Amino acid sequence: MPRLQINDFSGGLRTDRAQNLIEDNESPIHQNVWTVNSNALTKRNGIDLGFTTGFATSSNDSFSFQRPGSSGSAANIRGYIFNGSTLYETNVGVTSTTSYTNGSRTHGFVVSYNNNLYFSQINTDEGLIQWDGTTFTELTDNRPHGKMVEVYKDSIFTGRLTVPAGTVGLLSRLKWSSTGDPTIWPTNNFTDISPGDGLIINLLKTYRESLYIFKGTWEDGAVTAPGKYKSPSVYRLTGEPSGLQKGAYEIIPIDIFSSFGLVYPKTVLTWNNNLIMFTNNGIYSYDGNSVENLTDKIQTTIDSCNFRYTAGTTAQANANWGQAIVYRDKYWTSLVENTSASGVNTIYVLEKNGSIWRFKMTDPLQSSNHISSFFIGGNGNLYGVLSTVSLTDTQQIFRLNSTSSVDFNTSAINASYTTKEFDFKSPVHFKYAYVDFRGQPNGILNVEFNVDQHGWVQRQVDMHSSYSDIKRSQRLLIGNMGRSIQFRVSNNQAYVNFEIYEIGCEYMPMHDSSEITQARAIDSTSNS
Predict the structure, then answer these.
(1) Is the preceding peptide bond at 364 cis, omega within 30 degrees of 0?
(2) Checking DSSP bridges between strand 110-113 and strand 77-83, what pairing results, if any?
(3) How many whole angstroms separate alpha carbon 229 and alpha carbon 396?
(4) Beta-carbon neighbour count of residue 194 at 10 Å?
(5) DSSP string, 404-463
(6) Which residue from 373, 430, 454, 464 has the fewest beta carbons nearer than 10 Å?
């Protein structure tokens, strides 16, 4: 008996095309699933409270670095959390933190160089701070101003963000330390990047032997429409350390970024040998010559989001202004899929093969909350800093990739995956649906089929059996004639996971000319 076999789910989500135009391994709608173990479909891992301590502040941020002075062991990669005037260092494998205080410091950009961390502090002088793991030292030599901090060619570079008193017009100033010594900042180690354009340096990024300088706006509370954001001005600085102090460097404008909207600075990361950046109209990849939109598959979702950023107001909960991280060789970012403060917080995970996986958050990672930043803890887990709308209430740190199959120890993960509709070109008799899966100690797997879009018919598979944890197959009666068929698998029970290896059906052709073709276009919203 002929069979339709669907055993590759690696294409991920595709929402911008009709089903007759998507690949067989792509899905028009899914949530809380992705592929593991040679493209087997499974639930995402759970989310739990990562730290028992909450952080009541309006200036919370986080990052991951190897602890200064430590060995290269993975156990020495620590997560750090800025909390007002306090820097918290997460200990390895535990929920407590150690705090270090030294005046008022920014929640912005940080770099690691020569077993020290460097970041700027918020005051009228914006002095650069050096932390050796124990002691904070303010670098006062020639005042290395700037919030943007980056290492390039063995020097620390800073770029201006705000305008301290008496320095009007220096929004475009780029400064750098002596080669190999971030404590010395010669007076002639500076250059002004396109001064007078009204933009500020809001990102410095080293990429492929050059320093990329992004100029734009850090916040734009008056604008709500994505198309009205100013495009960034981007420049590339090249030069050798021996020539920087002598002015032997070149600054080249990069024109291809002019088609972008607002670039969210802390989403610009190096991944897959490219620069990846989140803008208000998609996630883009830059290879040094050209750009590519990595999120065209979910462009309709991005178009529906509100990208307004207004500091200290409810609008901030809707912004996508700085939450992205590369974790386990995947690019993770967060979206609020609504234009109101009650939008659903969703994490999108990009794979190197181009697939996109959508993780919808259950309470409290939805409604008026949003993920303000990510970091990787010393135990190798991924954490998200949860902020409230007002940003003044207690903020919590959640582990986003726990081994549990529930959220917050109580809420079941509601996972589902819908295939495209497969068109057989002429009527066939659908005999059986089947699913190959790995068993579980308990729980029900819902398997549904939809013949000719006449409605979903659900069958339930008891995953408990004496062959638990061994791959097995379950055959389910269909018994309908039709031309097309579509499948969906789902589970919304706590403490239950699944691995799906193949979904398909057995059928009898009504005519010898029957053959499977691309799916015909349907309204995919009917599958939600």
Answers:
(1) yes
(2) unpaired
(3) 31
(4) 15
(5) -SEETTTEEP-EEEEPPPEEEEEEEEEEEEEEEEE--SS-EEEEEEEETTS--EEEEEE-
(6) 454
